[in-house]
Structures are given as C-alpha cells and as structure tokens.
Amino acid sequence: MSFRGSEATEKSSEALYYSRQRRDRSLASARDDKLMIQLSSVTKIFKNKTAVDNISFTAKEGEIIGFLGPNGAGKTTTMRLILGYLTPTEGKISVDNLDPLEQRIDVLKKIGYLPENNPLYQEMKVTEYLQFIASVKNIDGFIEIASQVGLSEVLSSKIEELSRGYKQRVGLAAALTGNPSILILDEPTSGLDPLEQEKIRNLIKKLARAKTIIFSTHILSEVEDVANRLIIIDKGRIVFDGKKPKGKGAVEKLFKKLVKE
After folding, report:
1. Which of 127, 143, 11, 169 is nearest to 3 (CA)?
2. For residue 99, what pLDDT is reported?
3. What's residue 114's pLDDT?
4. Residues of the chain with pLDDT under 50
5. What domains does the chain contain, in order, with CATH numbers?
6. CA distance 71 to 30
C-alpha cells in the first residue's frame, strides 16, 4: 500500500472512531450525572499500615478526574481497589452498579487500565500484542484503536525496540481495546519527553468526551490542562475533592497548601 493510501486509511479509521465517540456523547448527554464509580467509607490496611483511610467519592460519566498526592499517599492502592485487584478492609465500592469483587469479570470489561509500570511482552511485535489483547477481551480487530493512538507506523516493530513514548501508546491502546466506558491511568505520562507528554494529554482529552477518566500524575500543570475535577489524597485520606481551581499555577498552590511534608 502507498504512503498516501496508508494515510487515507488511517484518517478514515480515525474519522470512524470519533464518529462513534460523538454518538456515545449524545447518549451520555441523555444520561447526565450517571454515577460510574462509587466509593463509600473505604479503608485498606496492609498489616500495620493504613494505605487508604475511610475515603468516599463518586465519579460521573464524562468526568476527567486528576488524582493527586505525594508518593505513598494511596493513589495506586485506590485504583487497584476500584479494579477489584485488592479487597477493601472496610467500605463498599461500586463500578456502574457492579461489585468489583463479586462481579470482577463484568467490571473489568468496563474499565481500561494503564498501570504505572505498563507491563508489556517486550519480545512481541506491536500487532501481535494488540491481537493478543483483543483475543483475551474477545474483541475483533484493533487497527482502529492503533490508528487512533498513533501506532500505525510501528505495528510491525517489536515492543522492545520502541521508545518509552511509543510503549506508553501500546499500553494505552491495550487499555482502550473493547471501548471501555471507564479509563484508569496511573501516571500515563511518567518519563516521557514534553512532546510525548503533550500528545498523550491531547489524546486523553479527546477520549474523555464519552468516558469517565481517573488519572494520577505528579505533573501539576498536566492536571490544569486536562482535568475538570481534582481529588487530592494525602496519607491515605482525601484532603480535597472538587472542581479544578482556575488560573495558571492554581493547582500547585492548592496542592502545596493541603499536602504537608
């Protein structure tokens, strides 16, 4: 296939994807304020350490939530609790009215997860890995998603040969396979150069038009750019949950005010 033909195919696939996204947004507007995630008085204790301490929050359809906190604050633990990877010591969690523990398979079909360490089968080609993920999720095809996240040019490359930015895109493509209604992204731009960070941020903003997204990051300006809501957790407790403050540097000021060394 010629370069122009390949480019046209990629644009066509992208147009089809966003057409479906617009349809999903129309459906979403008819279901305003639908709660996709609910945590009620959730606590998680590991031996003698309380990682998450009596937290409660909800996430609505279409929200982009920036999840902030220092290292060890409980961000990743909270995400794993939502996914059903961990069992809460106390409290209740609901994902689209499903129990992550009792109905884990159904819950995982609704969530796309990009963990911080982004585990990939390095020896596989990109196309092989995405085909594997699609088969595990019982989905036909992945080309549309690969095109959407900008992987078309590296489909035949081994994952171990890719830059960190492209590896993050592979992980994001895997998370998006199956068109989940919820995305949980644990530091999706960690270790990327500024250009790659911007590409991932722009992609997250496009995806959020018809999805619920929770993403953690240590880059506070990223939250200003992407999120429409902010949750700050410190020492396992939520210290802020509300609309993102307006103005350049406002998120950083709020974070420094609430999070103490």
Report:
1. 11
2. 96
3. 93
4. 1-4, 6, 18, 22, 25-31
5. 3-258 (3.40.50.300)
6. 39
Work out the widest C-alpha separation in the chain, in whole angstroms: 61
pLDDT of residue 26: 43
CA pair distance 114, 97, nearest whole angstrom: 22
- Which pTM value belongs to this model? 0.82
Q: Three-state SS across the chain?
A: CCHHHHHHHHHHHHHHHHHHHHHHHHHHHCCCCCEEEEEEEEEEEECCEEEEEEEEEEEECCCEEEEECCCCCCHHHHHHHHHCCCCCCEEEEEECCECCCCCHHHHHHHEEEECCCCCCCCCCEHHHHHHHHHHHCCCCCCHHHHHHCCCHHHCCCEHHHCCHHHHHHHHHHHHHCCCCCEEEEECCCCCCCHHHHHHHHHHHHHHCCCCEEEEECCCHHHHHHHCCEEEEEECCEEEEEEECCCCCCHHHHHHHHHCCC
pLDDT at residue 208, as a whole number: 73
Residue in 231, 214, 197, 204 with CA at minimum distance from that of residue 69: 231
